Amino acid sequence: MRNYIIILMFVMFMKPAICQQWAVDSFGQIISPRVADSFRQILQEPGTPNRTRVIALKELSYNILFSKPDSAMLLAQEGKRLAREINYPGGEILCDAQIGSVWWVMGDYTKANEIFLKCLKSSEEVKDTVALVWSLAWLTSGYRDEGNFQEALKYCQRGMNVQKIWNPKVWNTIMGSVYQAMNKPDSALFYLLRGDLNDGYGQVVMGHTHAALGNETLATDHYKKSIPLLSSDNNLKDLAYAYIGL
Q1: Gap between the Cα atoms of 87 and 101, Å rounded
Q2: Cα–Cα distance between 217 and 25 in angstroms, integer?
Q3: Quick one: pLDDT band at residue 18, thresholds 50, 70, 90?
Q4: Angle between helices 200-212 and 168-181 in degrees, nearest 10
Q5: How far is CA 97 from CA 8, 13, 122, 234, in A?
Q6: Spatial CA neighbour of 188 closest among 196, 198, 178
Q7: Helix, strand, coil proportions of the chain in percent (round to 5)?
Q8: For residue 231, what are the contacts with CB-CB under 8 A and spacing of at least 6?
Q9: pTM of this prediction?
Q10: Rounded CA gap, 245 and 163, in Å?
Q11: Do residues 67 and 36 make contact, with C-beta atoms less than 8 angstroms apart?
């Protein structure tokens, strides 16, 4: 995770840059309460640029996606409305993808994937790499959970090809999750060992993988490690999977 103290020190001076950086970095990692508070402060300040407001709304929506999807939807819709109003295509795509992610959390993968595909096409048209990467990541998750693994692998591999936007560990964790869902634990383990094991979700997937390999002690270990991480993020969705795994 980023050094949140540094972020907070510079938030008043570099708000647009900070928000754009978080738009790049935060997939799979819920922002800390301090950083979330800084985004709320940004929204309350009358002089904040509208583009910065769009990204702040998108990030705050993502921050509560796994605990309050209804509120996450409202924030994403507000971000999309503002982005359209100020003619900010990249921001509109990011907020639209965030709307799709709410449908994904709710289990409507067909609707979610329709939105993600639209976002992918739009990001290609406007040549927005940040929006492109987010679209690819969400498409991977949507198709994985729908059970369309070949599509999931295709979009994940494409995301890996533009991984300069994110730390490669993020994509390795995502790829590992696809192979774990495919019941290919050996392949899953290959990628997960190269992924982000400081992330609660990565720990849950690693637990599932070791369970499938018959390594019950290791599986239990990873599930237990995931619980405080997921609890501190208020990630109720994956926290449930951790307890089910145990």
Answers
A1: 23
A2: 32
A3: very low
A4: 40
A5: 27, 28, 11, 21
A6: 178
A7: 80, 0, 20
A8: 239
A9: 0.83
A10: 30
A11: no
Residue 229 · residue 200 · CB < 8 Å: yes
Query: What residue has token string 């290959």?
Result: 190
pLDDT digits (tens, 9 = 90+) for 105-130: 999 999 999 999 999 999 999 999 98
CB-based contacts of 88, cutoff 8 Å, min separation 6: 50, 51, 54, 82
Cβ-contact 226, 241 below 8 angstroms: no
Distance of CA 198 to the CA centre of its chain: 15
Q: Which helix (H) or strand (E) holds 14?
A: none
- Nearest CA among 146, 139, 148 for reference residue 171: 139
Tokens found for residue 194: 């190269």
Contacts of 222 (CB under 8 A, 6+ apart): 203, 204, 206, 207, 210
Nearest residue to 138 (alpha-carbon basis) of 177, 101, 180: 101
CB burial of residue 214 (10 Å; 0-12, 13-18, 19+):
exposed
Task: Count the residues in the chain.
Answer: 246
Kindly write down the DSSP assignment for every residue of 59-109, as one continuous string: HHHHHTTTT-HHHHHHHHHHHHHHHHHTT-HHHHHHHHHHHHHHHHHTT-H
CA 7 from chain center: how many Å?
19
CA distances to 157, 206, 217 from 224, rounded to whole Å, are: 30, 11, 11
Least confidently predicted of 24-38, 77-91, 111-125, 194-208 = 24-38
**206 contacts 173 by C-beta, under 8 angstroms:** no
